[in-house]
Amino acid sequence: MQNTFLGALRGLTPRMAGSNFRDRSIACLGALIGIGLAGLATGWVVGNEGHLPLLVAPLGASAVLLFAVPSSPLAQPWSIIGGNTVSALVGIAIAHFVPDKAIAAALAVAGAIAVMSLLRCLHPPGGAASLLGVLGGPAAASYSFGFALVPVALNSVLLVITGLLFHRFSRHSYPHRPKPVMATTHGTKDLPPQLRTSLTDSDFDAALAEGGEPMDISRDDLHRILRRAELAAMERTSSVARYADIMSRDVLAVRTDAPWREAHSLLLEHDLRILPVVDEQGRVAGIVEMREPDHALTSISEMMSEAATALPDDSVLRLVAPLSDGRHHAVLITDGTGKLVGLVTQTDMIVALARLAITGAARP
After folding, report:
1. Residue 342 — φ and ψ, nearest 5°?
2. Does domain 243-359 have CATH number 3.30.470.20?
3. Which of 38, 171, 221, 287 measures 20 to 30 Å from 279, CA to CA?
4. What is the rounded CA–CA span in Å between residue 97 and residue 208?
């Protein structure tokens, strides 16, 4: 009986995917700072107008989204600012024309959802903001449409500014920019190599249509998560080599302060496509490629570009993404301190993956 009760209780308490204690602690701290600063700043702007609230109730729900799930499409800056503001405007407008409070409240929430959807700023607290225009009391009535600007829009703007600053230190990206699904670099209509044998947009559309439920996640984020899950499953079910098994260890490199002619000579002499660039301690700084500069160079740093790096224990299956993105021809292998210890090329990847396909094991 107890196990049945606990099982039923767990079913009613879903855990958000990807959440952990650290994230929840950060969310609490962010909400504390965000709501506090928004209230103080609004008080400074509003001054002594005591009948006007410093904070509107929907801001608390906005803070939950902003600090607890900053990657949600519903928590982005336009969603918070636009969603709360236009919803309040909808509620105030309906209150002007519909005297019955209950009917006006229902119309306000329905209208807010419609307008937010049209403006692509759907934000759940907007439903509460729309009710402020109907049930906001003397303050909302006396300020009329101005109430949607102060305090609703002002609160929302201040909260978003706090979120932008706070998430610079929380290690969460905000505004959330999902890593784009790989695009072709050749200007043609062909799909990139990785996507030709992977899930397509039509596959996602069919799965979402079959599920019949909207999801609070962007298509790019969903695609990235599924690709990572596929990769993890392959690593778990196959005997897959690690970078250390296939990498070149006798790697030529050049220092960051070296002249370009030194790097150019090494590229030509050893028939290399790329050459690692390291600092004085041997840590990877970037790469230079075999191409002619369009102007006279004084330093190798003028031709240096960002390097794709990995650790020796990473699976060779993780080579596919960086070595098929049209930008990288090799992955530099570093130790835990960033020092260069090896290099894996596209040729190394092809050989390792061919062995995996033929024998079921990628280890040499």
Report:
1. -175, 180
2. no
3. 171
4. 39
Residue partners of 217: CB distance under 8 A and separation at least 6: 71, 72, 73, 225
Q: Which residue has the tokens 């307008």?
A: 115
Identity of the amino acid at 114? A
Our CA dihedral for 140, 143, 147, 151, rounded to 10 degrees, sits at -100
Cα separation, 163 vs 67, in Å, equals: 7
**22: amino acid identity, one letter:** R
Residue with tokens 């062909």: 190
Structure tokens at 182: 């790989």
> How far, in Å, CA of 88 to CA of 171, rounded?
32
Query: For the chain, what is the largest distance between any 2 Cα atoms, rounded to a whole number of angstroms?
Result: 85
355 and 317 Cβ atoms separated by less than 8 Å:
no
* Helices 219-237 & 201-211 angle (0-180, nearest 10): 100
pLDDT at 9: 47
Query: Contact, 54 vs 46, CB < 8 A?
Result: yes
- Put simply, whether the predicted model's pTM sits higher than 0.85 gets the answer no
Total Cβ atoms within 10 A of residue 41 = 18
Buried b (16+ CB within 10 A) or exposed e, 92-107: bbbbeebeeeeebbeb
**Tokens matching residue 273:** 């496509």
pLDDT band at 17 (very low <50, low <70, confident <90, very high): low
Domain boundaries, the chain: 19-170, 193-237, 243-359
Asked if residue 274 lies in contact with residue 329, where contact means CB atoms within 8 angstroms, the answer is yes
